Amino acid sequence: MADRGGCCPPMDLFRSEAMQLVQLIIPMESAHLTVSYLGDLGLLQFKDLNSDKSPFQRTYASQIKRCGEMARKLRFFKEQMLKAGFSTSTKSAAVTDIDLDDLEVKLGELEAELIEMNANGEKLQRGYNELLEYKLVLQKAGEFFASAQLRATAQQREMGSQQMGDESIETPLLQEQETSTDLSKQVKLGFITGLVPREKSMAFERILFRATRGNVLLKQVPAEDPVTDPVSGEKVEKNVFVVFYSGERAKNKILKICEAFGANRYPFAEDIGKQGLMINEVSGRISELKTTIDAGLLLRDNLLRTIGDQFEQWNIKVKKEKSVYHTLNMLSLDVTKKCLVAEGWSPVFATKQIQEALQRAAFDSNSQVGAIFQVLHTRESPPTYFRTNKFTSAFQEIVDAYGVAKYQEANPGVYTIVTFPFLFAVMFGDWGHGICLFLATLFFIVREKKLSSQKLGDITEMTFGGRYVIMMMSLFSIYTGLIYNEFFSVPFELFGRSAYACRDLSCRDSTTVGLIKVGDTYPFGVDPAWHGSRSELPFLNSLKMKMSILLGVAQMNLGIILSYFNATFFSNSLNIWFQFIPQMIFLNSLFGYLSLLIIVKWCTGSQADLYHILIYMFLSPTDELGENQLFPGQKTAQIVLLLLALVSVPWMLLPKPFLLKMQHENRHQGQSYAPLESTDETLLSEANHDSHGHDHEEFEFGEVFVHQLIHTIEFVLGAVSNTASYLRLWALSLAHSELSVVFYEKVLLLAWGYNNIIILIVGIIVFIFATVGVLLVMETLSAFLHALRLHWVEFQNKFYEGDGYKFHPFSFALLDDNDD
Questions:
Q1: 338 by DSSP, 3-state: which?
Q2: Is residue 652 a contact partner of residue 583, using CB atoms and an 8 Å limit?
Q3: What does the similarity note say (predicted)?
Q4: pTM of the model
């Protein structure tokens, strides 16, 4: 049986697939291929038979380490491709058979080649950036020295002319001698040039001044454009500096400060002629390096492009191999060390497919002995597996979020497909809003192939995953909107003319005195004349409140009926007689009766007060009903129903614990000689093990009795609170309707009334944003959460245990979701 496609749920969605515990004895030579074929099939959940061993003690630890190393290399390639702006090839190339050893060698060679290219490229780039900085230093410092030399020459000329003019008889004879002695005492100044980050330049200057006690001269010139730093490779704004100093001690201090501030130093010639030669030489080397770097980048890009073409194929191969070896590590080695023993859960329908995979693996690996497949008998509870499709999977996820179904218990997911969107629509009834929601969902459905292959944001991905749930919600909203006769809160005469008319042409009395009936009843839904009339709120409140109770009682009854199907399926007669029957009696004696009264009142048009009837049914059941009587014999019926409700409480509470104790004593009386149970009965009874503890050696009667007491109180009080909880359907429906009216009348109609095009445009924009933001987003989320609560608490707690665990088969198809 292959997976079923299409839109409709399979009939066996009501109960999970029948599962079996299987044992495989696989020869060593075909083990790898066998597990690989089972991964392609994806219908076997392996059990870990080496749970007592650490990962390093297992048989295939070295192979997993190899695969992990290859995965690391592939991640390195992916990072390099992303940095270079390449994407991995998405074309589904035919997967050729790649040998793992060859792939390991190839990946190692490619990694070494790429690392070498990166190292050479970084070295060249660093040299290139250093030369660019050096050229900048030569230019800026050269300008400084040239301007300084010009100023010095001008000063010398000026001083020379002054000296010539000042010579006279009074000039001292010893002046020339003093001058000559001063020139001999002059100290030669050294200098250091380089670049310092602009943000550190002020601190650099202060530290230099303090360290040398002011015996330096610092000259800084800002570079116009940001410079690529050779060390970090980032663009940094820098200043070119020249520091003049005197003495070796000062020089050593300045060098240490430059290192501390990350200032790059470069040699500089004082001679202007040498400066020009150096600039030409540096410019030539820059152009050569640029050509070399471009050639290296082209080679690197070609290598990355080659890797990208085969990356996905290699990645899938490594992931598959790693998962195969992980699975092989879960298998136990037999005594002869020639076979591997595997155990796992599989659906019964997959038996033939698994056997075919085992035979194919034995044939393809040229194994002399085939794998042995046998079914084991166990008391362990099997995993739960529902075969869902793209339509039903989202509804099943809603149920699984509450708890995974116990093995083969009734699955509420089947009913959720209809009841969940319907209860949502009861609260969201507006066919205009429903159409908007449907069109938004249609976008996801039409483009689902494209969107399913893309990485979406968290909210978008969640919306896309539930696209069919939202589609059903929108369709039901259109249906309930037609019943409520609301299109953005505006009524329409879609199914015929209104049955009501105004008393006169002015229609002034419509909101005070009311309308008069002039025609036949409106054929479908609420008559449009009710909207805006003085009776609109009382009428719609009464209608929606009573409808909420009817829907709630119906769904709770469905939940109790499903508990009967569970009890029948698991052959638990105690649950039928002492849970299902008294619960049905209690719920329907009170709230089933109330639902009947609502229907009778609607049919007869009676003015009876149902609140009064229900309250006095408890307070004074023997009193006459008077005008509140809806049918003959009502008083007697109420007394009988009240007595049945009172009897059903001890019926739920008392017999079951005593009968469970009796069953336990009878079961353990002849325990030593008890016959072995059949396999099917064992599996079924274990799957249906009761949480009261009757499968344990000691039977704790007090614990069981307290548990039953809690269960009884919970149901009795829950019958009242759960029925009241369904009134949220009325409350949210009213809130949605009134919000629609407010936005329509107080925004759109108000803007329309000003006869001003600008105000009208603003009003329309505000109306659209309010409708989308509040009604189509917030109200949708609110109604969704309330419908979720009604299913989880009010419906599922009547029958659903939800203490199972999911079936997680070993499947290559699920590897795409994981990074490793």
A1: coil
A2: yes
A3: Belongs to the V-ATPase 116 kDa subunit family.
A4: 0.80
What CA–CA distance (Å, rounded) separates 95 from 116?
A: 30
Whether the pLDDT of residue 328 is over 90: the answer is yes
- Residue 515's pLDDT is what? 75
Helices (DSSP H) in 348-447: which residue ranges?
351-364, 392-402, 413-427, 431-446
**In angstroms, rounded to a whole number, what is the distance separating the alpha carbons of residues 693 and 696?**
6
Residue 266: phi, psi to the nearest 5?
-135, 145
- Judged by DSSP in three states, 588 sits in helix
Asked whether residue 370 carries a pLDDT value surpassing 70, the answer given is: yes
What gap in Å lies between CA 674 and CA 681, rounded to an integer?
A: 15
- The DSSP string of 31-100 is HHHHHHHHHHHT--EE--TTTTS-GGGSTTHHHHHHHHHHHHHHHHHHHHHHHHT-----S--------H
Cα separations (Å) of 192 from 147, 245, 628, 756, 773?
Answer: 18, 8, 109, 75, 66
Contact 387, 10 (CB under 8 A): yes
Q: Give the pLDDT confidence of 653-695 residue by residue, as tens digits.
A: 999 999 999 988 888 775 544 444 444 444 444 444 444 444 4
Residue with tokens 């660019």, as numbered in its chain: 132
Segment holding 347, helix H or strand E: strand 339-347
Residue 191, pLDDT score: 87
User: Which structure tokens are listed for 785?
Assistant: 């959460």
Q: Which two tokens stand for residue 174?
A: 């010893």
**CA separation (Å) from 792 to 422, 563, 722, 731?**
15, 15, 11, 19
Torsion of CA 141, 147, 150, 156, to 10 degrees: -90
User: In 571-725, where does DSSP find H-type helix?
Assistant: 573-575, 581-587, 593-604, 610-619, 634-653, 655-669, 679-687, 701-725
The β-bridge relationship of strands 217-222 and 238-245 is: antiparallel
SS3 for 744?
helix
Q: Which residues are within 8 A (CB) of 344 and not within 5 positions of it... i.e. 6 or more apart?
A: 21, 22, 24, 44, 45, 46, 47, 810
Q: How many C-beta neighbours within 10 Å does residue 623 have?
A: 10
pLDDT confidence bin for 165, thresholds 50/70/90: low
pLDDT in tens, 388-437: 999 999 999 999 999 999 999 999 999 999 999 999 999 999 999 999 99
pLDDT tens-digit series, residues 543-593: 999 999 999 999 999 999 999 999 999 999 999 999 999 999 999 999 999
Rg, the chain, Cα only: 44
Q: What type of residue sits at position 667?
A: R
Q: Round to whole Å and give the CA distance between 442 and 750.
A: 33
pLDDT of residue 503 exceeding 80:
no
Q: Count of H helices and E strands in the chain?
A: 27, 13
* Token pair recorded at residue 395: 């509804």
What is the average per-residue pLDDT within 502-513? 67
Distance CA 482, CA 75 (A): 56
CB neighbours of residue 549 within 10 Å:
20
Token pair in block for residue 382: 């099997």
Which helix or strand (DSSP H or E) is residue 239 part of?
A: strand 238-245
d(CA 70, CA 368): 32
C-alpha 808/C-alpha 391 separation (Å) is 20
* Mean pLDDT for all residues in the chain: 87
Tell me the β-bridge partners of 351: none
- Decide: 449 and 442 in contact? Cβ < 8 Å: no
What is the crossing angle of helices 100-166 and 272-328, to 10°?
A: 160
The arithmetic mean of pLDDT across residues 35-43, rounded, is: 95
Mean pLDDT of 710-737: 95
Q: Give me the long-range contacts of 365-371 (CB less than 8 A, separation at least 24).
A: 365/29, 365/30, 365/32, 365/33, 365/34, 366/29, 367/27, 367/29, 367/30, 368/27, 369/27, 370/27, 371/24, 371/25, 371/26, 371/27, 371/30, 371/34
The DSSP secondary structure of 696-740, one letter per residue, reads SSS--HHHHHHHHHHHHHHHHHHHHHHHHHTTHHHHHHHHHHHHH
